[in-house]
Design a protein that fits this description.
The chain is of the alpha+beta class and 748 residues long. It is 22% helix and 12% strand. One of its GO terms (biological process) is proteolysis.
Length: 748
């Protein structure tokens, strides 16, 4: 319909159509004419509307847009509106009124995106007003009104009148995928195509096609004229659609028709009930949107309840199963647990001297050991179970560290830490480092250990000094805490620096190692000088030799080493010669002796004598055992270890010496015994023996403890001197076999 007009609907739902519409033949097919709306009675127009018929739309026609179907127009000379329709008879009983002016249809339909669907309108009640004079259209100025030729005694009722410009609503316009049934009666004055709106139709529930009710006998017959006019217009080419599409219902209430397969139509049974116009249903997208909103609300509610129920306050209030205060299950029944490791059995069967002698006879008599001395003691009661030349002093090698560590544990508090302190120098911009003997300073960044776990970090000391005095330009070292030479009597010239020893100094980084984590890496030749250089670089200063710190000088920073017990463990487990010498000097400082090799050795012996140990035959030149001048009888080492392994509370020295046992390497497990006891003859002692090793050229020693099969702890010392045998590995293996026999003897 033209855009300037609005659709309207009849005010009456009464069916006034004839009972049957005669079939018309067109193109060899039987068709039925759709109902024609009566003229409107609201004053918008009057006259007959027989010329208002639905144009024929065939499947092959392509719609201009999604809601309009377009039929190609006939040639220009055959335009139907160029002809003048025959005059229509005038009803004498009614005043002559001209037909309302029909607006000219627009040449082109609007595009889908430009055509907005009009809101549904409800039919308005018709008003009984006299029809207005009809104005002729511009393209039909020469056309006369066409009379409907009714009978004189029959006039159209007012409720059957309909405006000639009334067409289908926009929501009933046909979609492009729906094709209308061809109309056999095409008037010459109709448009070549017409829009049919099917927007309101639901494809899911197609309605049966509504046929035009048959014309009453007393209504004017214009079919011959229409047929004559259609004969002059060539019919468009027809193609049968692939799928029949439902024909939209007529805009007004038409009589239901029944269409036979042959094409004949018959009126269906009439009903007395008046058809009720149902309001337009809400679009389904709105229902879907409402469903989505409801679903989102439910989901949000579930999530909120889940989060709330997870809160401890809510779960406890409603006694939910996962509430923190919810009652737990029954307490589990205690289960007896058998410990795989336990202390020595002090009340078990004690070994006998005869049993031990029988167990060690063959192993101790091996010729590989050369000259062997040793002793075995029961620490529970101090009984000597086996003795072989234990009073004869021999070179102990690194077992000397047992005496050095014991003296340090007896003379120094176990929580003592070595200090490295920085004070203000005598000149402005000068810092003096007071070296306190800590050779374990860590050059790594904070959080990473070097070879000595728990050591102090150099960066920490640098940060303290920068904070206290950021204008340090010179760094000096105060090394007066140690005295004497850097090497001991009895050392070889190649012992320091070497892979196992550095020149002794009261301060250095990473024990003087060139590789901080490698115990067998080469030591630097001037460890204290290397420390001064690195420390000065971190401060942005320069190293300036040695100096004595002023009395009462301002402290700029201080760091401390690990406690004494950890230092003794490191010295024993890894047989660290440098740490042993530092411990000996600390014993000398604690006893007011000179902190040198000689002063440390003398202080060690003095402390052990003061604690009741018989040191007959002991001679010491250092605290590490590198000196070949050291001499220690086997029984002295056994006596010190026996006190450390004795029962608790029996000897007051035991509590101080107990950490000595923790520093002994484990056979096949740690330190210098990690790679030993793999031989079949000594594997019985693997994991059950803890002992300190000692090795020099022609000297091999082993001193420690073993737990026998009866659960008793036995203390042993084995010292071998093989001046003519340079095969150290074979001598070590022979010593391991002797100690392993103590593990499995029972010795009763």
């Amino acid at each position: 319909m033209p855009d300037s007009e609005e659709p309207s609907w009849p005010s009456s739902d009464e069916d006034t159509g004839p009972a049957k519409l005669p079939d018309q033949e067109y193109d060899g097919q039987s068709t039925s004419r759709l109902p024609v709306p009566p003229p409107a009675s609201n004053g918008s127009g009057g006259g007959s509307t027989d010329n208002f018929t639905v144009p024929k739309i065939t499947p092959e026609t392509e719609p201009k847009s999604w809601f309009a179907a377009k039929v190609p127009p006939p040639p220009q000379e055959e335009q139907p509106w160029a002809r003048q329709a025959p005059p229509r008879p005038v009803d004498k009983s009614r005043p002559e009124q001209p037909e309302p002016q029909r607006p000219e249809p627009r040449a082109e339909q609007a595009r889908p995106e430009q055509q907005r669907p009009e809101p549904p309108r409800h039919p308005e009640p018709q008003r009984s007003e006299p029809p207005r004079p009809e104005q002729p259209r511009p393209d039909q100025q020469q056309r006369r009104p066409e009379p409907p030729q009714p009978r004189p005694d029959q006039q159209p009722r007012p409720d059957q009148q309909q405006r000639p410009d009334q067409q289908q609503r926009p929501d009933q316009q046909q979609r492009p995928d729906h094709q209308a049934r061809p109309e056999p009666h095409q008037r010459a004055d109709q448009q070549p195509y017409q829009r049919i709106d099917l927007q309101r139709l639901e494809p899911q529930r197609p309605e049966p096609p509504q046929m035009r009710p048959p014309q009453r006998p007393d209504q004017p017959q214009t079919q011959p004229q229409q047929a004559h006019q259609q004969q002059q217009q060539p019919p468009p080419e027809r193609r049968e659609p692939q799928r029949p599409e439902p024909v939209p219902p007529a805009p007004h209430m038409a009589a239901p028709m029944r269409i036979e397969p042959t094409g004949e139509s018959h009126p269906a049974e009439a009903t007395t009930e008046s058809p009720v116009t149902k309001p337009d249903a809400e679009p389904k997208p709105k229902r879907k949107k409402r469903g989505l909103l409801i679903g989102a609300f439910v989901l949000l509610l579930v999530v909120a309840l889940g989060v709330a129920s997870a809160l401890p306050q809510v779960s406890n209030r409603f006694k939910l199963p996962w509430a923190p205060n919810a009652p737990k299950g029954d307490e589990p029944v205690p289960v007896a647990v058998t410990l795989s490791l336990h202390g020595p059995d002090e009340n078990g069967a004690a070994p006998t001297a005869e049993g031990v002698a029988n167990a060690l006879k063959a192993a101790a008599g091996s010729g590989t050991l050369g000259k062997l001395t040793g002793s075995v003691i029961d620490p529970a009661n101090g009984t000597v179970l086996w003795d072989k030349g234990s009073s004869e002093p021999l070179t102990p090698a690194s077992t000397t560290k047992v005496l050095t560590a014991a003296a340090a544990l007896l003379a120094i508090d176990h929580g003592f830490q070595l200090s490295t302190k920085v004070v203000q120098g005598a000149q402005p911009g000068t810092a003096v480092v007071i070296a306190g003997g800590d050779v374990t300073l860590n050059a790594f960044a904070a959080g990473k250990d070097n070879f000595y776990p728990g050591s102090a970090h150099l960066d920490d000391l640098v940060a303290q000094v920068k904070k206290a005095n950021p204008d340090i330009k010179k760094v000096q070292l105060d090394l007066t805490s140690f005295a004497g030479s850097a090497t001991a009597p009895g050392w070889a010239a190649a012992d320091a620096p070497s892979t196992f020893m550095a020149q002794v100094a009261p301060v250095m980084i990473d024990g003087g190692r060139t590789a901080p984590l490698d115990d067998h890496s080469m030591r630097v030749s001037n460890p204290s000088g290397v420390f001064a250089q690195k420390f000065a670089e971190k401060l942005g200063a320069s190293a300036s030799g040695t100096a004595t710190a002023p009395e009462g000088a301002k402290v700029l920073g201080e760091v401390k080493s690990a406690p004494l017990t950890e230092l003794t463990n490191a010295a024993l487990v890894h047989s660290d010669n440098l740490l042993a010498e530092v411990l000996a000097r600390q014993v000398a400082i604690a006893t007011k002796a000179e902190p040198s090799f000689a002063g440390g050795a003398k202080a060690t012996l003095d402390v052990l004598k003061q604690n009741g140990f018989d040191l007959t035959g002991v001679e010491l030149s250092d605290g590490s055992g590198l000196s070949t001048l050291n001499k220690i009888p086997a029984k002295v080492l056994s006596q010190v270890l026996a006190v450390a392994a004795g029962p608790d509370g029996k000897d007051p020295r035991t509590a101080k010496l107990r950490p000595l046992l923790a520093g002994l390497p484990v056979a096949g497990g740690s330190g210098t015994l990690e790679k030993r006891y793999d031989d079949a003859n000594s594997s019985d002692g693997k994991g059950w023996i803890r002992a300190k090793t000692g090795t020099l050229s022609g000297v091999n020693t082993l001193a420690g403890v073993v737990l026998d099969t009866d659960g008793r702890v036995l203390v042993f010392t084995l010292m071998s001197s093989t001046a003519g045998n340079s095969d150290t590995d074979s001598v070590r293996a022979a010593l391991d076999v002797v100690a392993a026999k103590l593990r499995g003897c029972g010795c009763k």
